[in-house]
Amino acid sequence: MTKQLTAPFRYDHVGSFLRPKALKEARTKFQNNEITYDELKKVEDEEIIRLIAKEKEAGVLAITDGEFRRSWWHFDFLGGLEGMEYYEKERGLDFHNLETRKEGVRVVGKIDFGSHPFLDHFKFIREHAGDSTVKFTIPSPNMLHARADKNPEIYPDEKELVEDTIKAYQKAIQAFYDAGCRYLQLDDTSWASLFSEESRAKLVAEGKDPQQFLNTLQYVINETTKNKPADMTITMHICRGNYKSTFFSSGGYNYAAEVIFGGLNVDGLFLEFDDERSGSFEVLKHVNRPDLKIVLGLITSKFGELENKEAIKARIQEAAKYVSLNQLCLSPQCGFSSTEDGNILEEENQWQKLALVKEIAEEIWG
Questions:
Q1: Which chain regions cross the lipid bilayer (predicted)?
Q2: Model pTM greater than 0.85?
Q3: How confident is the model at residue 338 (pLDDT cuts 50, 70, 90)?
């Protein structure tokens, strides 16, 4: 078995890391008007440079900034689009036995991509990563429709909102490419609305047809990526929610399997397969492209206890019954800190998890 030298890598990760104490303290001081933005940025810069060094020391092949400049994995980017606004809501999202912080985004004008601050965020990583591959993560365009509060006065026809979102993301992909990005990941929890009978029933209660919803998700991704440069890798992470070690949705991939595994114009899929909520590997039989990389998220990022290495290796071999082992990769099932709050584990645990991913991948693929 040959080593995977292009992204996604045999041992990879979703992107976010636990925020270090100094960064948490600086963000709190900034929110309390005790330090300036420039003083906060200085701490962010220092901690990102430290993180990059740690990633390299740990043998991480896809270097990220840990999403250290973000409060949320999605709202910061979406709120930075033209026509969008970040704001405080009356209620947060309902996760399993937990409500999130009361923050969100809303449509306040026509959607477009302009001088987005995330471009500078990428350039900073690129500057300090040396010869390493930089992976940059942004929310999928589907997340704008899944999480943004709409404005019927601005978009009386939601189809127009869909098309403007696609055009904005096409501009974003090109802008990141022009800045030097060759490995971009789209993070997407919207697919999970289709994974259980209960969640599909909620869609129906909202006046949405699950099959049409599925078709729209597919259309948005494929239109967004159709003009991507040939030497740019775009992957998608499909998630069921990750907030303080809890989750938003459950259910296997079955309902959407044919589209996810056989109908999306992406180069790789990061998939949660770390517990029984994710369903079986049988859905992988729908993979119909030999160039599509399937990144198995078999190592949980939600808790610090290390998985049994041999058990994970056995699960990889089980997945290989449905798709070529040469198409498979390994990673944690999600980021360690999808929001600045972080999951319930220690910084040492996240590095142990990544070391385990690397060790298993090298034993499986060489």
A1: none
A2: yes
A3: confident
